[in-house]
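4.2 Preliminary Data

To establish feasibility before requesting continued support, the project team ran the inverse folding procedure on a target of 1728 residues. The structure was first converted into the token representation described in Section 3, and no sequence information of any kind was made available to the design step. The complete token record follows.
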């Protein structure tokens, strides 16, 4: 229709243009009516104006009650009506809620007319909903009699307080009306309990008897409250707010409080509680026939919820629709939350309204699980509304409010011309309409406007306008003819409508279109500016009031662009008057200048806006002044035009005008407020003293620019008005005010430069004003003035004529330093590094200000600022930065490179400060000067100690420091004297690494005599005192330590001083509070006990006495449960001799250490395990040393008595056992086992009785339980060998003993992985040694019980994978002994099924274990005893057959590689074990027939083994001869001839075999069985002639103990030493010793508790044990040790090497051939 048709385009242009002109109120900003459409449920919300949620909830609850709504609509006005405006606004609000098409109604008009407590509603202030609800219905009640009756019938109830006398017939009754029932929530579960509390019967008796008004005497009575009359709408107020009398604060009760959907009030009515039978004389009964038909059952129709705390929160409501009968029957509920209304599921009422707790899942990083986390709900019901149940006919009636349906059904048809159609639907008010016609018309117009807005603010319409303004004109015949018309339409649409839209994605395209249209049409530009010059609507609405900064900036730039477009044409007209004749009259009045140009008229209009239309505290002035600033920068014409208009004075007067009230009422404005009422502006509501409008920064820049533009050479050409505005008035009010406000200080500085060029007098006056202002203002308010001073000081160079501001400022700085010293000093500290003049001036005047501000001033901030100023004098950036970054006492700046010039300045400053030491004592009187005056002084001097040079500079002033410290700082009883702390810190640092300064102390007798006197308060509960001591004490004791390190005489003097003992007693127990001080004290302790070779006897005695005194002090004062750190540190230093350790034992030290151990044990199994492991190990090492030192003196009664008093020893041992698991590191396990061994030796009877059952039960539990074992990070594992050491952070789950080795826990058999074998043996060997020790001690004490036998068998069975021969050796020795106890033990042993399983396992799975001679000897003794339990005849025969077959197969497999040394070594071990097993089995079972290939195979094998041995021996002899020849010649040995690998191995094996043969001579094998056996039973691989039983029976019982006991055996009898020498196997023992046990028949029962551990039996040699149990034997020959280390066979003896195993194998084969031949011979004889 429009394309190509100018007429049609003009027609539609006029229609649309009319819509986008100012024919309506301005649209809201960020407006999008589609978001404001009425909710789908057809209910309208209420806008929250800041804190009006209480109002919205109340109004919605009233509106949803049909009777209340109808009463408000039908209310009639009268002249004398109260609250008339309130009723009118309430009717308007109800009408809007019922008829509006919008989402929500803005209740601001209602808030403006409604008064509460005689004050208008403040929309930013929260109120209690119950209070507002009561106040509102009270006001409605007062409006008219009709409304009063409605309120009474709807909400009014009566409650009576009845007092019934029990001693007379009288009753007292008082009635009280209510609108809401208050329900107690605290300590109540539901509303029924709360109502019970209201109506509970209270008996008045005793002192609380009731005075009867009729009888006039005291009588017993019953008091009760009852509900006499119940309203139709029963409202409850849950008392969720309480006042805490302890905290004196209001609190909210968030506990669970339930209420039903249907409430029966019958049990709480007067009729029910005060029946006719209970009524007496005086009871008031009102006849009311309606009561007979009234129901006491109520339905819940509304709940108001409060979420938040007692101090603030939010209200929202859940309301049931009772207007619509269908919705009422279907229980339809809705959520009314301010503007939002939506359906709600009533099933969620309990979770949303009852309060209580809610549970959520929270991830716990410690347990790596999601844990249930419960917390109180903050939302709960605050008001409840119940409606009385009506009869069926009433409850089903439908309410009609007679509002026209046409209005409600009116919808948009998505056409921009809908408004012309809507006009035809103007609805006349119905005659019976309840809503007034004026209100009907008002809501109709509002809905019409809203529907129209919906169609305008639509992307389809925006697209239509784009087509109309952009594309359509280009289709017309002459686009230029309609360019002005198109530009008008585009501009009006964009500025009136489009920029108000919330969704405007094409705004950039629209601005580009406007720019293009203005570029193409000068007339459009002139129209645009003329329109705004004549009407300031657009500038005011967009440039001033628009909250969107982007829109404001867009409009400002658009205006600037239009002016630049017109500048070439209009610039010459800017300064011409607006006269019709066009004459250039420059003398025209100000009002006429610029009248010929639309540009200047527009600018004049903007200036008028500043004078009349806007306030200086408006929010959005940045773009306004930015436009004027950009306009002034365009050229000289623009700036001169502004100057001619006296724009400077205009802006000054604008700024200096009224800024608003001092304390304006803060009101939280809604988003729509500024748009709804034209007279209301969006302004800043700030107090004047906090007035900092950043929006005016461009104004200051504009003033500065105009002043500079007015300069003409040496003078300013400002008008008198402008100059007076800037510099007039007392104290330069404009400059003072905007500097104080902190508005663009940089441009203020430029303004002052412009004003003061060539005007030094004005510069002096302005500087004077600045300092006067600083003197008067608070430090905070003076900050902008100091900032301006900084900018003035920084000025250097520039144009000529600039005054010397730096000199003026430095001359005046002392005038204000008394008023604001801290800021002045801080400001100087900033200027000194930047300005040479300031630096030299401050440095030269140090004597005038340092003492005055650094020492004498009363304010700490000033003294700190003075220190910063001193730091700023040092020309080093790193020096200054490091000082400012330190928050506590400073430390010396070590290794800081400084230039020579910097060092000179530093020494100059440092010398001045040292010179003040003598003056500093004037400021140490705490009563006058406090305790912190010297802190910055000493802190800075400490910081200056860069090198030893500064420390040596102090030497001259040492006595000044001492006189300052003593007595004025050291003696006064002041808990926290920070001056002393700072002085000591400086003194310590100046002495560190400077023996010259230490010498000044120790060589001065006065100082050494008094330096130990220093008042210290050890108040460990006062945090301030603790923090002070934490800083002061390390420095003090550090000085003493330095003196002790240099002077032995001072050390001896200080060690005996009472204050040092006081420090040990009162400070070291608190290591966590004073870590530095405690460390220094223990360093002193080490110096006190240190011994020198040249010490005199009295000095040694002093050390001994010091240790005794200190140990006794610690044993008296320490609490082992909390001071374990101190105990460990002290005992580690002090316990040097047995005498020191016995002192601990005699003074209950064992009990003290046990307490510490118990605490560490508990902490170890908590999250702090990684922190106390080291402490546990150290404590146990101290335990071990003390117990060891005790054992030699067990015969002393005082030692026995001390050990008897240690009653916790058994529990202590049990706790040690619980640390033996795979969660404990090896050092901790070994420490526990060492202590346990020592405990067993100290008190064998006690620990055998208690530990053995516990251990046996533990092992049995693991063997018989199906529960998988929990393995920690330290259990040997093949896969994680490299990671085991890094898992120390895994804490143990609980205290438990877990040293059981089950078969399933072993990953591979022995010999396959040497590293794994070593780890496994390292883990279990110490524990097996401990169990072995228990057995040896039990044998010695004749306490080898059945439980211990079972324990030894279990542990031996577990140790089979380790090939440990501890227990086989023990059992063999028992078997060789003829005592009754031994025989009993052997009997118990053979009856144990585990023992039989142990032997069976050796023969079946661990036959290589038989290579150990001890094990083989053990088997020869016991196999015959238990053969029936191990194998049946058939099984034994099968096993023999299997072994023979395996032997033959192994030999056949080995024949091809028999020359390979590695294969021989591996196969020989297996063959030797199998042959020994075969010999053992043949000794107990003679088979009927043997494999005939066995003997030939054995003979061939023997032949090859002998050949290999001969080769080895010959090579060994040859090499020995060569070595002897070389030694005789004395020549350097030449390199050995290279041989093949096999030859090399053979040679090495032969050499090793020779050395081992020598060793074997010194290591005889175990004895054979002493029982009578068949002659065919031999001992393959051992001595051919076993010793007789008589020799073996002479042996004593043996007991093995660890090497840690060896130092205590100095009193071993000589005959036992002879036994050791006779038996060579005891020579190399490093872990065993001989102890004698003498039975004293005269011992008392008390003494027998700790018998002597000097056992009579000679202990076995570990060398033989090593050969069987896996410990690597320390060899005498390094080459032998090297050969033994192959594969780290800690579990295999030297027999496992090739040179050993071949020889052993040969002898085993020979014996086996002999046995097999004899058996075969017997078999042949039987057959024949």
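Position-by-position output of the design step:
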């Amino acid at each position: 229709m429009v394309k190509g048709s100018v007429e049609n385009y003009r027609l539609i242009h006029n229609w649309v243009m009319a819509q986008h002109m100012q024919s309506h109120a301005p649209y809201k900003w960020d407006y999008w009516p589609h978001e404001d459409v009425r909710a789908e449920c057809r209910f309208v919300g209420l806008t929250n104006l800041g804190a009006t949620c209480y109002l919205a909830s109340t109004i919605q609850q009233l509106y949803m009650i049909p009777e209340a709504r109808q009463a408000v609509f039908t209310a009639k006005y009268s002249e004398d009506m109260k609250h008339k405006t309130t009723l009118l606004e309430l009717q308007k609000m109800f009408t809007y809620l019922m008829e509006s098409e919008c989402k929500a109604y803005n209740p601001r008009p209602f808030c403006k007319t409604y008064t509460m407590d005689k004050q208008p509603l403040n929309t930013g202030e929260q109120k209690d909903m119950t209070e507002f609800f009561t106040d509102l219905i009270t006001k409605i009640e007062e409006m008219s009699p009709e409304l009063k009756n409605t309120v009474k019938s709807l909400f009014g109830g009566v409650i009576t307080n009845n007092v019934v006398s029990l001693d007379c017939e009288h009753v007292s009754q008082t009635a009280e009306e209510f609108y809401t029932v208050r329900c107690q929530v605290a300590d109540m579960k539901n509303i029924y309990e709360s109502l019970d509390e209201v109506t509970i019967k209270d008996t008045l008796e005793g002192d609380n008897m009731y005075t009867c008004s009729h009888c006039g005497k005291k009588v017993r009575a019953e008091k009760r409250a009852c509900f006499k009359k119940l309203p139709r709408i029963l409202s409850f107020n849950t008392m969720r707010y309480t006042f805490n009398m302890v905290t004196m604060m209001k609190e909210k009760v968030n506990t669970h409080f339930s209420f039903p959907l249907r409430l029966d009030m019958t049990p709480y009515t007067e009729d029910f509680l005060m029946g006719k039978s209970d009524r007496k004389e005086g009871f008031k009964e009102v006849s009311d026939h309606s009561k007979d038909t009234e129901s006491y059952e109520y339905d819940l129709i509304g709940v108001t919820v409060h979420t938040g705390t007692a101090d603030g929160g939010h209200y929202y409501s859940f309301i049931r629709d009772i207007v619509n009968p269908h919705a009422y029957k279907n229980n339809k509920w809705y959520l009314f939350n301010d503007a939002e209304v939506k359906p709600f599921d009533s099933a969620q009422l309990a979770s949303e309204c009852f309060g209580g707790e809610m549970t959520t899942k929270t991830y716990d990083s410690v347990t790596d699980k999601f844990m249930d986390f419960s917390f109180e709900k903050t939302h709960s019901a605050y008001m409840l509304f119940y409606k009385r149940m009506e009869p069926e006919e009433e409850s089903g009636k439908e309410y009609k409010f007679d509002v026209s349906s046409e209005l409600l059904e009116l919808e948009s048809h998505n056409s921009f011309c809908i408004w012309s159609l809507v006009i035809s639907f103007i609805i006349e008010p119905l005659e019976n309409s309840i809503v007034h016609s004026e209100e009907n018309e008002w809501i109709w117009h509002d809905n019409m406007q809203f529907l129209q807005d919906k169609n305008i603010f639509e992307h389809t319409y925006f697209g239509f306008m784009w087509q109309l303004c952009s594309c359509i004109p280009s289709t017309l015949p002459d686009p230029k003819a309609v360019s002005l018309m198109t530009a008008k339409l585009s501009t009006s649409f964009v500025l009136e409508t489009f920029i108000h839209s919330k969704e405007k994605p094409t705004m950039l395209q629209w601005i580009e279109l406007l720019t293009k249209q203005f570029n193409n049409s000068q007339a459009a530009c002139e129209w645009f500016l003329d329109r705004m010059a004549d009407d300031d609507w657009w500038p005011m609405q967009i440039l001033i009031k628009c909250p969107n900064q982007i829109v404001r900036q867009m409009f400002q730039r658009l205006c600037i662009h239009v002016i630049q477009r017109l500048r070439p044409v209009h610039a010459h007209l800017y300064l011409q008057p607006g006269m019709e004749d066009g004459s250039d009259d420059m003398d025209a009045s100000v009002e006429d200048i610029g009248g010929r140009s639309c540009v200047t008229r527009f600018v004049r209009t903007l200036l008028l806006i500043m004078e009349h239309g806007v306030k200086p505290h408006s929010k959005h002035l940045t773009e306004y002044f930015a436009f004027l600033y950009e306009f002034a920068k365009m050229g000289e014409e623009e700036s001169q035009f502004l100057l001619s208009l006296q724009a400077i004075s205009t802006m000054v007067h604008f700024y200096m005008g009224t800024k608003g009230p001092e304390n304006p009422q803060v009101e939280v404005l809604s988003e729509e407020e500024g748009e709804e009422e034209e007279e209301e502006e969006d302004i800043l509501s700030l107090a004047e003293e906090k007035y900092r409008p950043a929006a005016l920064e461009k104004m200051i820049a504009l003033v500065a620019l105009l002043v500079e533009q007015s300069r003409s050479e040496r003078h300013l050409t400002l008008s008198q008005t402008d100059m007076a505005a800037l510099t007039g008035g007392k104290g330069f009010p404009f400059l003072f005010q905007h500097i104080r406000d902190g508005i663009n200080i940089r441009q203020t500085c430029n303004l002052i430069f412009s004003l003061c060029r060539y005007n030094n007098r004005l510069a002096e006056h302005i500087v004077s004003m600045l300092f006067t202002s600083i003197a008067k203002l608070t430090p905070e308010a003076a900050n902008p003035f100091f900032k301006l001073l900084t900018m003035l000081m920084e000025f250097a160079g520039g144009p000529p004529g600039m005054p010397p501001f730096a000199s003026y400022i430095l001359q005046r700085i002392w005038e204000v330093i008394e008023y604001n010293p801290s800021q002045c000093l801080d400001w100087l500290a900033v200027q000194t590094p930047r300005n040479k003049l300031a630096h030299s001036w401050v440095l030269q005047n140090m004597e005038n200000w340092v003492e005055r501000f650094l020492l004498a001033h009363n304010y700490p901030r000033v003294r700190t600022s003075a220190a910063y100023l001193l730091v700023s004098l040092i020309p080093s950036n790193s020096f200054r930065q490091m000082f400012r970054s330190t928050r506590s006492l400073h430390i010396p700046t070590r290794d800081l490179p400084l230039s020579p010039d910097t060092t000179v300045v530093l020494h100059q400053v440092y010398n001045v400060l040292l010179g003040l030491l003598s003056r500093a004592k004037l400021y140490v009187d705490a009563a006058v000067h406090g305790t912190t005056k010297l802190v910055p002084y000493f802190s800075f001097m400490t910081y200056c100690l860069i090198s030893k040079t500064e420390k040596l500079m102090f030497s001259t002033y040492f006595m000044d420091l001492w006189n300052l410290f003593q007595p004025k700082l050291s003696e006064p009883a002041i808990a926290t004297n920070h001056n002393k702390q700072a002085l000591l810190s400086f003194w310590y640092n100046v002495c560190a690494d400077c023996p010259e300064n230490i010498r000044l102390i120790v060589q001065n007798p006065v100082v050494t005599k008094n330096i130990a006197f220093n008042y210290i308060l050890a108040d460990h509960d006062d945090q301030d005192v603790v923090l002070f001591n934490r800083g002061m004490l390390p420095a003090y004791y550090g000085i003493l330590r330095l003196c002790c390190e240099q002077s032995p005489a001072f050390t001896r003097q200080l060690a005996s001083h009472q204050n040092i003992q006081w420090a040990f007693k009162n400070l070291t127990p608190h290591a966590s509070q004073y870590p530095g001080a405690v460390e220094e004290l223990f360093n002193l302790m080490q110096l006190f006990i240190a011994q020198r070779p040249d010490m005199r006897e009295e000095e040694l005695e002093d050390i001994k006495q010091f240790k005794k005194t200190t140990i006794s002090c610690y044993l008296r004062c320490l609490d082992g449960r909390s001071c374990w750190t101190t105990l460990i540190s002290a005992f580690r230093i002090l316990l040097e001799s047995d005498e020191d350790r016995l002192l601990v034992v005699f003074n209950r030290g064992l009990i003290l250490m046990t307490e510490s151990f118990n605490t560490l044990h508990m902490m170890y199994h908590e999250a702090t395990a990684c922190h106390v492991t080291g402490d546990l190990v150290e404590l146990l090492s101290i335990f071990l040393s003390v117990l060891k030192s005790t054992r030699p003196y067990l015969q002393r009664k005082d030692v026995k008595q001390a050990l008897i008093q240690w009653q916790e020893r058994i529990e202590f041992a049990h706790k040690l056992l619980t640390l033996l698991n795979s969660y404990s590191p090896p050092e901790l396990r070994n420490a526990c086992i060492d202590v346990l061994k020592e405990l067993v030796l100290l008190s064998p009877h006690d620990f055998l009785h208690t530990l053995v059952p516990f251990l046996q039960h533990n092992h049995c539990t693991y063997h018989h339980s199906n529960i998988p074992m929990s393995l920690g990070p330290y259990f040997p594992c093949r896969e994680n060998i490299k990671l085991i050491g890094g898992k120390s952070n895994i804490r143990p789950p609980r205290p438990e003993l877990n040293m059981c080795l089950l078969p399933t826990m072993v990953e591979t058999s022995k010999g396959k992985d040497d590293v794994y074998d070593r780890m496994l043996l390292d883990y279990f060997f110490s524990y097996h040694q401990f169990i072995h020790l228990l057995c040896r001690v039990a044998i010695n004490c004749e306490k080898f019980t059945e439980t211990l036998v079972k324990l030894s068998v279990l542990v031996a069975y577990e140790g089979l994978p380790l090939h440990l021969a501890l227990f086989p050796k023990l059992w063999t020795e028992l078997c060789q002994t003829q005592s009754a106890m031994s025989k009993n033990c052997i009997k118990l042993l053979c009856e144990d099924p585990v023992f039989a399983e142990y032997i069976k396992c050796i023969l079946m799975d661990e036959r290589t274990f038989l290579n150990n001679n001890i094990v083989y000897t053990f088997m020869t003794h016991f196999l015959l005893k238990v053969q029936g339990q191990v194998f049946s005849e058939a099984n034994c025969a099968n096993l023999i057959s299997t072994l023979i077959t395996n032997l033959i197969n192994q030999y056949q497999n080995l024949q091809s590689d028999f020359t390979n040394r590695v294969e021989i070594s591996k196969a020989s071990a297996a063959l030797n074990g199998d042959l020994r097993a075969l010999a053992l089995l043949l000794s107990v079972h003679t088979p009927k027939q043997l494999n005939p290939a066995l003997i030939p195979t054995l003979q061939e094998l023997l032949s090859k083994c002998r050949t290999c041995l001969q080769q080895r021996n010959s090579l060994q002899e040859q090499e020995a001869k060569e070595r002897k020849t070389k030694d005789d010649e004395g020549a350097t040995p030449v390199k050995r001839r290279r041989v093949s690998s096999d030859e090399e191995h053979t040679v090495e094996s032969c050499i090793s075999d020779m050395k081992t043969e020598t060793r074997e001579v010194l290591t005889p094998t175990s004895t054979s069985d002493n029982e009578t056996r068949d002659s065919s039973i031999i001992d393959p691989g051992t001595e051919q002639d076993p010793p007789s039983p008589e020799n073996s029976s002479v042996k004593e019982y043996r007991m093995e103990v660890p090497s840690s006991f060896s130092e205590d055996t100095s009193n071993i009898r000589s005959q036992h030493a002879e036994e050791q020498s006779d038996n060579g196997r005891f020579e190399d023992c490093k872990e065993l010793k001989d102890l004698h046990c003498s039975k004293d028949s005269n011992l008392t029962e008390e003494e027998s508790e700790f018998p002597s551990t000097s056992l009579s039996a000679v202990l076995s040699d570990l060398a033989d044990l090593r050969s069987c149990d896996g410990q690597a034997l320390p060899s005498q020959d390094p080459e032998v040790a090297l050969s033994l280390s192959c594969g780290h066979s800690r579990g295999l003896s030297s027999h496992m090497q090739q040179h050993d195993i071949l020889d052993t194998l040969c002898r085993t084969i020979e014996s086996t051939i002999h046995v097999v031949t004899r058996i075969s011979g017997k078999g042949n004889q039987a057959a024949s």
